[in-house]
Amino acid sequence: MKMSGEEETLSNGCSRSDLSLALEDCMAALDLFLRNEFEEAQARLRSRTKDSMYHALTYATILEMQAMMTFEPQHILAAGTTMKEAQAICQRHRKKSSFSKNFTEEELHAEVCYAECLLQRAALTFLQDENMISFIKGGIKVRNSYQTYKELHTVLNSSAYSQGHNHGHFEGGVKLGVGAFNLMISMLPTRTLKLLEFVGFSGNKDFGLQQLQEGSKEGTFRSFLCNMLLLCYHTFMSFILGTGEGDVHDAEKLLQPYLQKYPKGSIFLFFAGRIEEMKGNLDAAITRFQECCEAQQQWKEFHHMCYWELMWCFTYKKHFKMAYFYADLLSKENCWSKATYMYMKAAYLSMLTADDCLTFGETAFTLFRQVPGLKQKIAGKSLPTEKFAIRKARRYLAENPIPLPAPPLEMMYIWNGYTVIGKHKDLTEGMLKTLDEAQKKLDSCPRTDLSIDDQCLLSLLKGLCLKHLGHQEEAEHYFTLVLCNETQIKYDHYLVPNALLEHGLLCLEQGRRDEAIKLLEAAKQNYKNYSMESRTHFRIQAALHKARGTRENGTHVPASP
């Protein structure tokens, strides 16, 4: 790989290149962004988005971050359009002829920026749907991005490649893309993985993490993004889409230097809160999230992310009035899912006495009835959580509705919250007490066609609490109870594969590995078309990965992309 053009000019001692100056300016804008000076950062970038690929990409990345936090249709549209424009700028700087093997340094940077634009456009699609099929439907975009990163990785490791002045920034871009692809693909459920491998994709989790870790340490333009992706992986992806065991130690190590440099940086205070929450240190988490809200007023989007986490922290503590307060703030201020927020408001009110509800001027019954009417579609898709909330709320449309037994505790399971309370005996015992009260209430009511569904839900949640309290035999009894009633479940079919998943994880804890694999395989193979199916399959895949101790469910995965 022979470098030409720019590198020669630099070696002659001439002034620094446009590329070097652009990267320096973008890093200065990023520094402003991390100091909560969001408008100033955007203004600095905006002036050069029509001619500099790095300014265009950085500006589009900030808009995409905003869109991912707000889910406002106009923000999603603006982010998508701006990223497309950034892609067009990168295209202008890409190599014109495919016959020559000589790249200028600028052309190499154009390739990596172009691939990043494609990857980010695909990531926005995934966030809206949580289903990798929609990610793959971006087909050509994703494939082009993947192939470009593969080729650039080969270039980087080629003996013919000579390092340009901005080599570190280029290498960081390649590590970001190669790491992101390997990590994302490695997490996929087997059926999606097989489809991807058929069309030439492959992923290795350890290699992906290694690439991102290397990229995060270099102090280059992409270090921050590598770091953010690792933090998201440890604190969200592996937690919500895995078995709830994000690597807190690694997350803390990654966060510490940034928190020291940007002690008031909203993004870092948010992750600090999330780490405390995962550890079960709820009071410390609440303090961090409140600090994050107080740190700046320009981007309310960071406040909304904190409100969501604060809502869950107060749910874990069974402070349902405070949880309602944050759900109410979200329903008024944020557009991600009005139906989910309304459902959570109703769910919290359903846990309070009638007198307590009077102080809020709303009733659970009236709020639940509003949920189906708030359904929205983002890019033609409904969010899985929203579909779940709407389906659960539909029972309140009946003339004499049968109340849901413990709706906040059920939604808590969907977001893997039992792994948080499971770290503290008092929190788990408190939740078990609430479930026992719900059980007494269910037992005292006349039987209906929904009684089995409600009983199975309580059995699954009680099993989880008992597992975390070390009462493994009792927990196993409750998981088995769900399976025994499988044929009588009317609507909540998602309970059966999830009971098998939790039973499998329990067996795994006890060293009953073969039994665990059998239960997990049954959960994976025997059930489909149920609520939150995609999320359950992600969790099953993570559990099987853990059970088998192999790279990806027995599939051969190459050590590089």
UniProtKB/TrEMBL annotation:
Pfam families: Iml2-TPR_39. InterPro entries: IML2/TPR_39 (IPR019412), TPR-like_helical_dom_sf (IPR011990). Keywords: TPR repeat. SUPFAM superfamilies: HCP-like. Belongs to the TTC39 family. This is Tetratricopeptide repeat domain 39A. It comes from Takifugu rubripes.
